[in-house]
C-alpha cells in the first residue's frame, strides 16, 4: 500500500494501518450466509491468514484477494472448524496455484493435528510443492518486519496451547512539514532521508538533522485477534488501548451457562472487555446460527457502542488516531 506523500513529495509506504478481511464468521458449523473461521490481516506487502476453516480457499477466491503473498498462516487452536481447510488449501497448491513458501505458526498441540492432516492425509509421502515450514510458537513476539511486529499470547479455551495474536506497528515520529518549510528543505530525497532518520546537507551548506523536522514518538496502530476464548480477565492487558479487537461471540448472555460449559464468550463479555481495555473498535465474529445478528449487536452495543458484527467478506481498516 503506497501513497504520494505531501510532506516530502516522494512515494512512501502507508505505515498507519492494518486491514482485516473476514473470510468466515460462523461458529462451529457453517450457515447459509457464514463460512467457517478465517481472516486475512494485511500490512503493506505482508499477508497473514488467521485460521483456515473448511471452505477457506473458496472464500479466498470469492473475495477476489487471491493467493498471492499468502505465505503465513497463524492458527489460534486445533479445533477442526479452524484448521480443516488447510487440507484443501494444500491440495490446491499441489495442482493449481503456486506460492514461494508456506509458513504455519501455532502451538504444539495444534501442530500435531496439522501435521497429521497435511502429511498423512494430503501428501501421503509426497513432497509439498513449496517449502512447507512448520513453526511451533509460544507466547511472545515471533515475527518482526521493519515497521511492525506480530506477538502471540495465551488464550483460555478447550485444550492446551490456544493463542491469540497482536499486530502492532512500531513507534514512529511524524514529519513536521512546516518546520521543514521554514528550514528550506526541498521536496524530494532530502525529506525522505530525514523521515528515515538521516541528516542532510542543503545546497547552501546548512545541515538539518531529523530532530529538526520530526515530532515526538507516537505509538503505531494495534490490532488484537483473540479467536475462541472461555474467559476475558486474562486478556485485559494484551487488549489494552487496541485500535481494533476481534473476538468471538458464540453466545448471548441469556445462555451464559452454556458459554462457560463450552469455554466460549457471550457478546456481553466481549463488550465488557473492550470497555475495560479502552479499545477503539470491537469486531465480533464466530457467530452461532442460533442467534439473529441484530440481537448480538444490541447486546454488545448496550455496553460498548463502537461494536460491529463481522459478516463474510467484510473488510475493516485498523488505524491509530493519535
Structure description:
The chain has 322 residues and is of the alpha/beta class. The protein folds into two domains: 2-172 and 218-315, Ribonuclease Z/Hydroxyacylglutathione hydrolase-like (Metallo-beta-lactamase, Chain A); 177-213, no CATH class. Helices cover 27% and strands 25% of the residues. The protein contains eleven helices and 18 strands. The protein has helices at residues 56-63, 80-83, 85-95, 108-123, 177-183, 189-195, 210-213, 236-239, 256-261, 267-277, 293-301, and strands at residues 2-4, 11-13, 17-24, 38-43, 46-50, 72-74, 102-106, 132-136, 140-144, 148-154, 163-169, 200-201, 207-208, 222-225, 244-248, 282-285, 307-309, 315-319. The strands form four sheets. It has a seven-stranded mixed beta sheet with strand order 8-7-6-5-4-3-18. Strand 12 (200-201) and strand 13 (207-208) form a beta hairpin. Helix 3 (85-95) packs across helix 4 and helix 10 (267-277) runs parallel beside helix 11 (293-301). The longest helix has 16 residues, at 108-123. The relative contact order is 0.15.
Short synopsis of the structure:
This protein is 27% helix and 25% strand.
Write out key terms for the chains shown.
alpha/beta, Metallo-beta-lactamase, Chain A, 18 strands, globular
